[in-house]
Automatic annotation (TrEMBL):
<dbReference type="InterPro" id="IPR050493">
    <property type="entry name" value="FAD-dep_Monooxygenase_BioMet"/>
</dbReference>
<dbReference type="GO" id="GO:0004497">
    <property type="term" value="F:monooxygenase activity"/>
</dbReference>
<keyword id="KW-0503">Monooxygenase</keyword>
<protein>
    <recommendedName>
        <fullName>FAD-binding domain-containing protein</fullName>
    </recommendedName>
</protein>
<keyword id="KW-0560">Oxidoreductase</keyword>
<dbReference type="InterPro" id="IPR036188">
    <property type="entry name" value="FAD/NAD-bd_sf"/>
</dbReference>
Length: 169
């Protein structure tokens, strides 16, 4: 990978993503980072249009994160672990825009939460909804005995909002 330098991943109208831009060791993050690349790129293209502005912004936000996850300078991997745990997706979506595509009841709940407690409160309603929805899907595929204590990892979430209008930073 050539990283840390401007235009390392952007060549005119050509953009490298995933392993093509930053193949690393096969240690469990390459695919995750490739998915992130796609999500962040989609957000920036929606914001800036398809072209150099979006590509340059993408390279700027992605290079430090990818570098520190794939090539953590700390021997114990502390930088990398913190970055993986602290996904940056929250910055990419606005709960009110997401709510427009959600069921009416949830939409109203989000709007009320934002009015009462601001964007973070609205985000939490969307996250709770996404966790309920994914649980229902999982249970429908693999019925779980009633009363089960199945606890979904809080990091499992739907991100339909990434398909919608979003803002970065
Ligand atoms: C053994 C191993 C274990 C791994 N384990 C994990 C893991 O647990 N978790 C994790 O997150 N990551 C893991 N990775 C890394 C992960 O697989 C990659 O980072 C990820 O697949 C990169 O996705 P990509 O879409 O960028 O590239 P790829 O998945 O390589 O996709 C590129 C695609 O382009 C196709 N292609 C190539 N050349 C051409 C061409 N000329 N024309 C048309 N198509 C072409 C290829 O056939 C391929 O389908 C592992 C990798 C390896 C090798």
């Amino acid at each position: 990978m050539t990283h840390g330098s401007q235009n390392a991943w952007v060549h005119g109208g050509l953009l490298l993503v995933g392993d093509a831009a930053h193949a690393g060791r096969a240690d469990g993050q390459g695919a995750n980072i490739a998915f992130e690349d796609a999500a962040v790129l989609g957000a920036l293209v929606r914001q800036n249009g398809l072209g150099h502005k979006a590509f340059a912004a993408w390279e700027e936000v992605r290079q430090p994160r990818v570098r520190d996850i794939l090539w953590d300078p700390k021997p114990d991997g502390a930088t990398r672990s913190a970055l993986i745990q602290n996904s940056a997706f929250e910055q990419l979506w606005c709960p009110l825009r997401v709510a427009a595509a959600l069921p009416a009841g949830v939409r109203q709940e989000v709007q009320e939460a934002v009015a009462r407690g601001g964007v973070e409160a609205g985000r939490q309603v969307v996250i709770n909804w996404s966790q309920r929805a994914i649980r229902e899907l999982v249970e429908a595929k693999a019925p779980i005995a009633s009363g089960s204590n199945l606890a979904l990892d809080p990091h499992y979430r739907f991100w339909p909002e990434l398909l919608l209008g979003v803002s970065v930073r």
